[in-house]
Write the structure tokens for this entry.
Amino acid sequence: MSKLETRQAIQAFIGLMLVALNLRPALSSIGPMLRTIGNSFTLSSTALGILTTLPVLFLGLAAPLAPKLASRLGIERTVLVVLAVLALALLVRPYSGLAGLFAGTAIAGGCIGIMGVLLPGIVKRDFPNHASLMTGIYTAALCSGAAIAAGTTEPLRELFHQQWRPALAFWLAPAVIALVAWWVQLSDKKLGVKPRKLRGKSIYRDRLAWQIALYMGLQSSLAYTVFGWLPTILQDRGISAVEAGLALSASILMQVVSAIAAPLIASQMRDQRAMISLMMLLVIVGLAGCIYGPMNQMWLWVVLLGLGQGGGFSLALTLLVVRARDADGAGRLSGMAQSLGYIMAAFGPLLVGVLRDVSGGWQAAGGFLIAIGLGATLAGLKAGRDGYVLDD
């Protein structure tokens, strides 16, 4: 590898990591201040459930736009444009009233959905011999961004004299940094590259692709419910707002460990089924502990929850790469699985809010979440079998 190629690879890696850092703060920064925002606008639990649902729903709705935009602009230029829109949405959403809050959050979710679809194809294309490792590393970066936002947004609000708007707007800063870094690392050659048109069997007719999409959707439903509702659940059980935000942050930080470790360990096994089952078991135990368990063991529950969710999500992204034979197949699988999966996942936070309103507590919601975890395990046992999508 020449010095130029080495430099371009390093720049591409840094750009990829900075983009990954921006794929969750727009979502995880809402959860710690959900009660504060609700009080500011006098919103019910159902309305707050809609607020936490919107970005996830738009993750799925916007995902099919990714290949269309990439075919027109090129993959790298598409990421650049979407990063700019994300930064603008994060700037506008706290200062445009209730409608702006909902609209900005939805647009941010759509931007994240488009970038999330494109990244697995970039990994498969640029790092074909280290796909599992690179997927784990960028998933760890993604989880780190989520953890930092979850843990520091409430302290930022206190720093800004109890004002939640500047604390929420703060998260446009990493988007701007990623935008500048992505612009710098792009070469003229890359900007001009456009993917070829994809032909052959429709990904929507592939059984394995549907199994991966189902696993992606169910485990993501739990993840976004945790992002949106875990601090509120813990506060309702007697934990302070700052400590609840730190608990969510700690849980997400634990995801960094398993996000890297789970795909690497699974790559030494025949397939991913055993590791998926272990990760989902940790998720179920952690959720049950947070909702039903003693609060003097709260840190144990959030650690188990984080380890399970980091590994489960990283394995979902790994499936998008290793279940395809080439970058084109990875892109098609990523678009299909993330679109359907996130649309499915969007209903998790919403239904949890409805169950909280109807029942007046978290008991029914807890049973609902455990059922989703069991469903994700079953789907993962199918999706984790060795094989490739789009094979005749």
About this structure: Confidence is low (pLDDT under 50) at residues 188-193.
